[in-house]
Design brief:
Layout (H helix, E strand, L loop, with lengths): L1 H13 L1 H22 L7 H19 L15 H4 L2 H12 L4 H32 L5 H12 L3 H9 L3 H25 L8 H11 L2 H11 L4 H31 L1
Helix pairs in contact: 2-3, 6-7, 6-10, 6-12, 7-8, 7-9, 7-12, 8-9, 8-12, 9-11, 10-11, 10-12, 11-12
Length: 257
């Protein structure tokens, strides 16, 4: 048995990325099954998958001494590569290919304003909340504000400004909470808010910003709307990464000193 186990672990170690796809595939299947049969579709499978991923990440951190997390375990080593920026960006770009430009243009100025206003508003809300919890330095306030924008903007901003790992972790947590909230609430509020057309989805993506949350929420509402919301949500992330360590930081620093 030990000999068989050692062979399996060697194969897994040499094919970590393939194993990671299998693990994520099984978790995704489980998540969507739970969504379908346990919640009757009220909670999207993507939201459940994120929760399961967070639980797995926590277990990995506890088992490995909180170093590199789950990817320190041989069986899950490929997740470190699969969860990296390369495949993430590939998925975002692939999503954009489902867009029809004539529909995207209908959002026009409203879509652009949604991105700009919502991005800066997220930084303001995040900074105010961080101030309420005792943070007084501009770096921490800006980093946590970036996390409220998305869980990508937060760590990018924090890394650029030299924020502590604890503050960066808080910014990621804030972004994850927002993402899950958007996933769950979007299908429930879609009809009352008129979220029924590509133009509305484009503006909505610019307002919410979180690509994963917006995409999952729109998928549960109407799969045809996903590319439009995901596109502006992606622009939102890029815009946030650009203005976070620059304009937002200088404004916050000028206010708090």
């Amino acid at each position: 048995m030990d000999f068989f186990t050692s062979i399996v672990m060697k194969v897994v170690a040499k094919n970590g990325l393939v194993t990671a796809f299998v693990v994520i595939g099984v978790m995704t299947w489980m998540s969507y099954s739970i969504s379908k049969y346990a919640t009757k579709g009220r909670i999207h499978g993507s939201a459940i998958a994120i929760v399961l991923g967070l639980i797995l990440a926590y277990i990995g951190g506890e088992v490995t001494g909180k170093k590199a997390g789950i990817s320190d375990i041989t069986f899950f080593s490929g997740i470190g590569l699969m969860g990296g920026g390369m495949l993430r960006d590939f998925c975002i770009i692939a999503t954009a290919y489902g867009i029809k430009l004539e529909e995207l243009k209908k959002a026009g100025l409203a879509g652009v304003l949604a991105i700009v206003v919502s991005t800066f508003l997220s930084f303001v809300i995040g900074a105010v909340v961080a101030w309420g919890f005792g943070y007084r330095d501009a770096v921490s306030l800006t980093t946590i504000g970036g996390g409220v924008a998305t869980f990508i903007v937060g760590p990018v901003t924090g890394a650029a400004l030299g924020a502590s790992s604890e503050v960066i972790a808080l910014s990621i947590a804030a972004g994850v909470v927002k993402s899950i909230a958007v996933m769950i609430l979007t299908p429930l509020l879609a009809k009352p808010f008129g979220l029924t057309s590509p133009a509305a989805a484009t503006v909505y993506g610019g307002l919410m910003g979180t690509t994963s949350g917006t995409a999952a929420g729109l998928a549960a509402t109407d799969p045809k709307l996903v590319p439009y919301g995901a596109m502006t949500a992606t622009f939102y992330t890029g815009f946030g990464c650009l203005v976070g360590p620059s304009i937002c930081f200088f404004v916050i620093k000028a206010i708090v000193g």
